[in-house]
Amino acid sequence: MNGKVLLVDDEQHITRNLEKVIPWNMLGLEIVGTAKNGVEALELLQETPADLVLCDIRMPVMDGLELVRNIREQGIACEIIMLSGYQDFSYTRAAIQYGVKDYILKPIPYDELTGVIARVMSEQRHKRQQVKEEKRKLDRIIDLANEKILYDVLMDYTEITADNWLMAGQEQQLGEPQYTMIVLDIDAGSADARDWREWPDKERKMWNFAVCNVLRETLQLAGVQHAIIQMRDGEWCVLIHGEQSDVFNGQAGPAEFSQRFETKSAKWADTLLASVRKNAKLQLHAGIYDQVAAMNELSAAYKCVQRGMQLSTETAPIAFYGNERSGDFEAGRTLWDIAERLIGAMKRGDAGGVEAEQKRLAEQLHKAGASADGRLEPLLHFLALHLMRELKEADLLPREREDAMWRKMDLHFGVKDLFAEIRQATSEGVVRSTDKRKLSERQMADAKQFMDRHLFRDLSVEEAATHVGLSTSHFSLLFKQTYGETFIEYITRARMETAKLLLAETPKSVAQIAKEVGYAERRYFTKVFMKYTGQIPTDYRMAVQGTSLMTAGEETEEEH
């Protein structure tokens, strides 16, 4: 695509010569207009933006320097080269102050001017490429931060309400139906997954990372706003952002909407499964929540889909799940609830809780044994698989124990043997959890010190988890249990408290303080600070120290 050039000179023979002599096509440029003075030039720029303006200094009505000043004040993005028959340093100095790229004296040396134009446009293209790359990196950082928050929401590690100061600028979205949820999972108990189960942990991590990239790239190419969150080894939650109007234009009833929603979401799931199959060489299956979900509904929706996928005895690659259409029988739901409490007790190192849930599980199996019509064994098998994956995610299942369990699971044990295996695994898990509790406390204290030392920069939960040698999900759970808040909540609160201290005790500007506490963008820092304290930074500073240490110009700075 050619760049656009505007020529401004009150001498028409100058503009005609510029049009004819300069090799515009070779430079990748086209002339979009000519003007005789600054007023005409401004009107043309407002109608047709230009990448480059060649402008004379001395002109009637509005001269070149006044034109340049107006261009800069109006925020019109273009490069400017001045042309003048006057070799006066005051003109040159004024031009430099307004960011003019070069200053060419008349009579115009066209070869020299051609070289200057080529250099200026090359610098502009390079600068735009840098800006584009920086925006891409910033967008990815924002996506990662969003994914961290969404992970905590999905795992129910944080309470999402309009009062949560982490949600600065997002309050209006909490109750809106905006996400299509697709959970992608490897069928860990299938014969197709045996190779995957035998992979070393390092190879599995690389594969998990590769699948995340495949899913992101697939949706990015489609231009869809999305988030990809790895929930555990071999399981991902895909959230596609969109209103109901994205599925239909508001002209359909509930039944037609449901049909269209299922058609569209199933198409997305099929596309993602095919992409993983092609690029990662592994077969997954998909569970879709059967309606759009608001942010404050995501945790319940995820649990519903995950439970449905784990308890389902069907082998369909794509299935829909919802609270109203749950197909599993009552014993399955009860077993699932017991398993969830059992897993929670293990992770807490609560031996009494584990023993109580083991007894409930035994009672439920005894009660359902005579009436389950052969469905109890596969359900218990799926629960054992779920338990194994949760134990592994919590780092409570050594690799040798995992391999032994897989071997036994592949032999299709009966209900009695499956229960014995679950009981042994949970008992060993709670012992390990108890032994690790003291270590975890030390790790969390170490992580907290590490985070406090690095508040000034973009710090990821993955980096903090790696620092103490834990998986991201297990670190997030331990941190929440230890300090009563998530990683993001702690980091943000610590930054806000540091910012309050700097505002109260130093004369540093708001922009400087924002950078020192890890916010590259002052306006976003102000939003979060306002949400946290109820005041914008300058008002907070005035309240605690008066105007004596206010930095120049800060009193009128617009921060709302």
From TrEMBL:
Keyword list, A-Z: Coiled coil, Cytoplasm, DNA-binding, Phosphoprotein, Transcription, Transcription regulation, Two-component regulatory system
Pfam families found in the cross-reference section: HTH_18, Response_reg
InterPro entries tied to this protein: CheY-like_superfamily, Homeodomain-like_sf, HptR, HTH_AraC, Sig_transdc_resp-reg_receiver, Tscrpt_reg_AraC-type_HTH
Compartment list: Cytoplasm
Keyword Transcription (UniProt): yes
Main location: cytoplasm
GO cellular component: cytoplasm
Domain of life from the UniProt record: Bacteria
Residues recorded with modification 4-aspartylphosphate: 56
Name this polypeptide is given: DNA-binding response regulator
Organism: Paenibacillus montanisoli
